[in-house]
Amino acid sequence: MKKNNASDNPWRAVALVSAIGADLVVCMLAGFWLGDLVSKWQGGRPIWLVVGVMLGFFVGVYSVFLILRKFTGGSNG
Question: How confident is the model at residue 4 (pLDDT cuts 50, 70, 90)?
């Protein structure tokens, strides 16, 4: 008979997927806000808005990497 493992909990998987989605959205919105702020400060040049969103995306991807490493029990996790 198979023993239940704590990591087999479907709610844990739902929490992981929710955390990944929320993390990406928050990071990209923060990048958008920061890019918009810098864009207004620099006289309305939209390139800063794009840079902010891209920076938010890359920070979000790195954060998702850290979340997955923690979830899977990787090194230094």
Answer: low
